[in-house]
Amino acid sequence: MQWHERIGQRIRLRDLHILMAAAEAGTMAKAATELGISQPAVSKAIGETEQTLGVRLLDRTTKGLVPTEYGQALLQRAVKIFDELRQVADELRFLADPMTGQVRLGCSESMTAGLLPAIITQMSSRYPRITLHAAQTSFAPLQFRELRERTIELVLGRIPWPLPERDLDGVALFEEGIHVVAGAQSRWARRRRIELAELMGEAWALPPPDSLPGKLIAEAFRAHGLDVPAASVVTGSIHLLASALPMTGRFLTVVPASVLRFNRPLPRRVLLDFPAEPGWAGIIWLKDRTLSPVARLFSECAQELARSDRGPQPTLKT
Predict the structure, then answer these.
(1) In this predicted structure, what is the pLDDT of residue 101?
(2) Which residues, including other chains, have CB under 8 Å from residue 244's CB and lie 6 or more apart?
């Protein structure tokens, strides 16, 4: 019997599901508990799959179950198989009722403070029964682990453009600038012309230097012959940088322009154009993964908002 005949006729989805659960749990007993079946049933399903394929899929060690080279190859593709089945189920539900569905999204914190709420507002008004699962995602350069593991379908945030990796696809929404922000009570609010060098001695609140925003800010200061000012507050919180700290009147902060563009309830600000190289905000997905109907709606809504004047536009002091 050929390999394709073994797989096509004798491998069952239930057995693949049991294999995945056992590999993740590390023991057959834990997998049986999680699946609500007996341990012998788990052992039998794995044994029959190994016998059908003619290779060992899991090594039984003193530390638990460890996938073999063959097991790792099968598990990687099993993840894709079940992901595609979920996609099919979602698409069928959407076809039956275009007002329902769900999408799982990874998002940078700056997008959750600006563009994402605008997308949610627009989508919920048009499709009130669509569900969005949004998780904050690490945006270390070129790191899209959750996307490749298919636990999320889309990534929204600052992206490298054009995309450097062949397994990724996406759309660039807009150039993402950066602004220096001060509260209305700050003495800088009364100044019409401000040079970046004049601000070096002020109290700054900045992102961590080892974060992507921190590195972008450091590069911008150095490009203008300046050292990064010593920060009085170091934080990755967009809420602190965009709202809480500037409103004290004491701190200067650096905020992505889209946070100010799409976040309607922001109090008054003094905004200075930060001399950083603009990056791109966009959406990324796996090239070999067909987007669900709801994911396509999300992308279309994001592109529509990016083209619009939705939200207050920041006015620069000159």
Answers:
(1) 84
(2) none
